[in-house]
Write a structure and sequence with these properties.
Elements: H1 10-20, H2 25-47, H3 50-56
Helix pairs in contact: 1-2
């Protein structure tokens, strides 16, 4: 996997480390990013995507009464 170097404010890195319970800023930021991505996927699974909107907006068949 490719590696990326990112510069963060030291206070931000320390806060992330404290909240995630890690001793390495790199591990802490990686955990936060992975959690964000997982949370986004769970939200999309619950709410659907743009294609689901079309399915819900289709006209319903008219029921003929006799």
């Amino acid at each position: 996997m490719a590696k990326v170097t990112i510069t963060l404010d030291a206070d931000l890195a320390i806060e992330v480390m404290l909240q995630s319970g890690t001793r390495s800023p790199q591990d802490a930021v990686e955990l936060v990013v992975r959690d964000y991505l997982d949370r986004t996927r769970r939200t999309e699974a619950r709410t659907g995507d743009a294609a689901d909107g079309q399915r819900l907006n289709q006209p319903r068949p008219v029921v003929e009464e006799g």
